[in-house]
Amino acid sequence: MRLKNCHNFHDYRKLAQKRLPGPIFNYIDGGADDEVTMRKNTAAYDKVDLVPNVLRGVKDVDLSVTVMGQKLDVPFYCSPTALQRLFHHQGEHAVAAVAEKFGTMFGVSSLGTASLEDLRKKHSTPQVYQFYFHKDRGLNSAMMQRAKEAGVNVMMLTVDSITGGNRERDLRTGFSIPMRLNMRGLYEFMSKPHWGINYVTHEKFKLPQLDEHVDMSGGAKSIGGYFTEMLDPTMNWDDVAKMVREWDGEFCLKGVMSVADAKRAVEIGCTGIVLSNHGGRQLDGSRTAFDQLEDIVMAVGDDIDVIIDGGVQRGTHILKALSRGAKAVGLGRFYLYPLAAAGEAGVDRAITNLHVEVLRDMRLMGCQSIADLSPENLIANI
After folding, report:
1. Cα gap 53→367, rounded to integer Å
2. CA nearest 68: which of 307, 380, 353, 243?
3. Cβ-based neighbours of 269, under 8 Å, separated by 6 or more
4. Which residues are annotated as catalytic?
5. Domain map of the chain by residue range?
6. Could you give the CA distance from residue 306 to residue 326 in angstroms, rounded to a whole number?
7. Of the residues 167, 184, 271, 306, which has the fewest C-beta atoms closer than 10 A?
């Protein structure tokens, strides 16, 4: 399979699997425990059908939205994801370039492999910084100040990862950062020499946001150690309220799933929430974001920007989320597979495909703008 033969999410996944060593592919591809929630994230969209309107004279379609103060040309954005240069040497720079081309946001993770400053200098599109809460409060303040000085537009605090999920695929392959592979994992790397050549002949793998705090040489502060030793499981609403005041700008909580928590986010001054179960990689058996979306929009949709991620594979999934009240939709694996498959060219082709899908689907729905979508466009099929 070649990039030119990729036309949908599943095609890019197959090409990524062909090109990545097994442990790295399974890191992207896997979820927590039995991976029930990961599968349900996409299946949830099948529970409702779109109801189109015809004879509406649709010619030009406006896909633009405004979310957390950012004007986006399309109603989807590239969510922050970790370790991107492990999947392809172009990493975050490839994703940022495509996001800029389509006039949308991209996210940078605390575990990102390109620095906030470099990305901000090279790409003018809105930038989100995905942040973890540390036991060291001084470190939290220093990292937020660095993000502010870099020109980050939106601070996004992840609140569903106070400890790492049980990702058994990684346990089977021995995947970790730094690498500590078992024999099966080593064989997988040996069978994909092209990946290895690219890895050693390009810029050294690093975590610029954390390079002063995480020892990548194999010491105690590995990625696993980072979650278990540096993140603070006692984080509470008072802590976050202080961060919101300190940031004094667009502040979003990623990982909110209950109505009560959504209301509390409004109370402490957040400007956005992302309904997310971390792609099914944290608490297996948890509810999907799409299933929870209607209740949360009804409760706080007029007071805060409600965003959703998880399981999106088609333009129709995006239209269903927007019809149910989401202001925008985040993409994760959707761009990671094409990134792994072909770098910037892969991400560009995948996002182009999605853009074409959303435009076509809007015309077929009889909608000229995102504002034309509403719950009336949906009907439950169960």
Report:
1. 8
2. 307
3. 241, 244, 245, 251
4. 278
5. 3-380
6. 5
7. 184
pLDDT digits (tens, 9 = 90+) for 159-206: 998 778 888 888 888 777 666 666 666 667 777 778 877 877 888 888
**Which among 63, 105, 66 is positioned nearest to 319, based on CA atoms?**
63
Write the DSSP assignment of 308-366 as a string of letters: EESS--SHHHHHHHHHTT-SEEEESHHHHHHHHHHHHHHHHHHHHHHHHHHHHHHHHHT
Instruction: Return the H-helix or E-strand segment holding 201.
Output: helix 193-201
Calculated CA dihedral for residues 62, 63, 66, 68, nearest 10 degrees: 180
Distances (CA, A) of 248 to 128, 138, 194, 209, 242: 15, 17, 46, 21, 10
Tens-digit pLDDT profile for residues 92-104: 999 999 999 999 9
Average pLDDT, integer, range 274-287: 95
Question: Which residues have C-beta within 8 Å of that of residue 13, sequence separation ≥ 6?
Answer: 29, 333, 337
Q: How many CB atoms lie within 10 A of CB 121?
A: 11
Kindly state the DSSP code that residue 228 receives in the 8-state scheme: I
* CATH number of the structural domain 3-380: 3.20.20.70
Give the pairing of strands 70-72 and 65-67: antiparallel
